[in-house]
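Appendix B: complex inputs.
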Amino acid sequence: MRIGNCSGFYGDRLSAMREMLEGGPLDVLTGDYLAELTMLILGRDRMRDQSLGYAKTFVRQAEDCLGLALERGVRLVANAGGLNPAGLAARLRDVAAALGLSVSVAHVEGDDLMPRAASLGLDGALTANAYLGGFGIARALARGADVVVTGRVTDASLVVGPCVWRFGWGRDSYDQLAGAVVAGHVIECGTQATGGNFSGFLSMPRSSEPLGFPLVEMSADGSSVVTKHDGTGGLVSVDTVTAQLMYEVQSTTYLNPDVSVDLASISLSEDGPDRVRVSGVRGSAPPSALKVCVNELGGFRNQLEFVLTGLDVEAKADWLRAQLEARLDPRPAVVDWTLSGRPVVDAASEEEASCLLRCTVQDPSGDAVGRAFSGVGVELALASYPGFTLTAPPARESPYGIYRPAYVPRDVVEEVVVFDDGRREVVV
Amino acid sequence: MKAPLGTFVHARSGDKGGDANVGLWVRQGPRRDDRVAWLLWLVTPAFVRSLVPEAQSLEVEVFALPNLGGVNVVLHGLLGEGVAASTRFDPQAKALGEWLRSRLVEIPEELV
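Resulting structure:
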């Protein structure tokens, strides 16, 4: 089974869905739209409009590609539902109707713990979503869904789900599930598996042609080959795949809701040009608790960036700092200064003769870091060090969130698949 | 000899909440087994702190993955309260790996 990826984050290349559908054969096309920070962004969207809270770019991609996916028999599986998978599913049905297409859209829900946040000890959360596994996606596909959208499933679950559906793996098929988690982890970040953000970029072709998105050829035993469509840019090599496996793992055991993966068991080998075989992966029972992505409103922040040029930059920085801090009233909870770089001596350009002094402030209240902060900085424009200039006009304060992981017992989370006809099925 | 860590070591880094996460591994090529053995010996929490002075008082964990030719390193709390809250330059630690690769370290001549 060939499973592709067309998105590594909310904001990734919009044309990638079409490129992946047109570039070669696929059975399933997946997309990851959710990072911890994305949940916060979607949470703020939803605060403004209850019908939002999903990745809007996925709707635009579907408007362009739904017909093409149906024609090619490719199922779409994405976590683009974010905080509102039901809302995204409804929106996709409208899109299909407007295009005159008959499309079965299902969604997976139950990850959103906000309605019970207080009883779960998650008070104060702006968003709280349990990371779900792939079995809900598998049920949706088995019931004929052409499109499955989810909320917070793990990124790898987007590959685990289709494998469970196609190969009929059970809950205890740990080695196979582990193989699918590894394959999913390799392709979840899109072009980071095909030469993007890659330390070995000097050893690969670097044309202006866009990097191809990755795909995996999955086998029933859980092993896979990572590759990309023929003729696309970039590279798939043992090193590009290692890059993706080596980061974000935080241990030698990679925990997922369906399986615990022994990373020390992974074996990689070249399997022809732009093909890497992943085999030998071993898994064991998943942890008893589910991880929860919690975002809280942290407070407000603001920043000013001063340009210091030429001679005596340390003295210029010291004076400005003393002047600004004396006038901050009230003083923000955090006032952080950094001076980046130092001017080149006898520089032949003004830019090389300059460096940047950055002042970042944070406070639980917006007042202390709004105009009360940026205004003080601006008032010094003609009253401070010689050559005073800023890189950007003064801004208002902006809110920021704090992410923290939490853990809840499995039995408090009820994963539900909602089919196209509105029927609901609890995933067991 | 003194040479950049990135002479034959690759890296990728990123964030998990307030923790920075870096993978370091030996690229495919000559003398790989010896280079991997050296890298696994070299990278300890103390070594990481020597390259990243701002991690001096932080908990650092190193996980060896010899099958992949390298290590995964977690620098706890380097990013404060996380990407949205961090005042750090490069709040998501996206370029931390490339910074580490540019640091000069003592590499046995026969491995270069």
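Strands of chain B lie at 2-4, 9-16, 19-26, 60-65, 70-75, 104-106.
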